[in-house]
């Protein structure tokens, strides 16, 4: 599986699954663009893989538009988008106590952000006659999430992917949705720490319990799947993919 000279944009590429995908794609020959709200970490990852970093707020359309204008000016094309930017807030907050502003913020970043990135990626892909969009949902889309907002947002991402796949197929743009399970990211570890706090455990105890009970996977494992999905080897893949 080669990605030589393919231009791959990864939002949320500063950490977690997005960073792992960026590292694998770069190692396989892609020209990687990392877009993230975290400028210090995003720029550091881009330097390490000889990629391009562009700061972005995926919830703000003007910011997303500037991102794609920069990609167009720098490369003149876009072969693949991996929309990995996301947040999880409000873990274990009862629905009757869940703040509306937190709910809206999570929806804006996770769901609206995925929509905005796809919206502005499509014109560049149509220009070259081919493209791949990979949306990162979660096992939380089809099971009980620790956060009302996060589960709702990821369910929306999955439905967005279904809709985009049908509408963009005539343009030779393939859309896939990936549902990661228990992956050892800072986001996941923060949820475990919050659960431990509620149980009166230390964060270390909870992490050990989670690792033993649910066998958290490494981000690199998902990163390899994402790199494969944006390659030509995955041209015949349709729909959802579930990972550890």
Keywords:
alpha/beta, 8 helices, Rossmann fold, 2 domains, 244 residues, single chain
List the helices and strands and how they pair.
Elements: E1 7-11, H1 16-27, E2 31-36, H2 39-48, E3 52-55, H3 61-75, E4 80-83, H4 100-128, E5 131-136, H5 148-168, E6 173-179, H6 186-199, H7 203-214, H8 219-229, E7 239-242
Parallel strand pairs: 1-2, 1-4, 2-3, 4-5, 5-6, 6-7
Q: Mean of the pLDDT scores?
A: 94
Strand content: 5-15%
**What is the count of distinct domains?**
2
Q: What does the main sheet amount to?
A: 7 strands, parallel
Distance between the termini: 22 Å
Strand order of the largest sheet: 3-2-1-4-5-6-7
By CATH, the architecture of the largest domain is named 3-Layer(aba) Sandwich
Q: What is shown here, in short?
A:
The chain has two domains: 7-181 and 218-242, Rossmann fold; 184-217, no CATH class. The protein contains eight helices and seven strands.
Give a verbal description of the structure.
This protein has 244 residues and is an alpha/beta fold. It folds into two domains: 7-181 and 218-242, Rossmann fold, CATH 3.40.50; 184-217, no CATH class. It is built from eight helices and seven strands. The protein has helices spanning 16-27, 39-48, 61-75, 100-128, 148-168, 186-199, 203-214, 219-229, and strands at 7-11, 31-36, 52-55, 80-83, 131-136, 173-179, 239-242. A seven-stranded parallel β-sheet has the order 3-2-1-4-5-6-7, sandwiched between helices. Strand 2, helix 2 (39-48) and strand 3 (52-55) form a beta-alpha-beta unit. Helix 6 packs across helix 7. The longest helix is centred in the middle third of the chain and has 29 residues, at 100-128. It is globular.
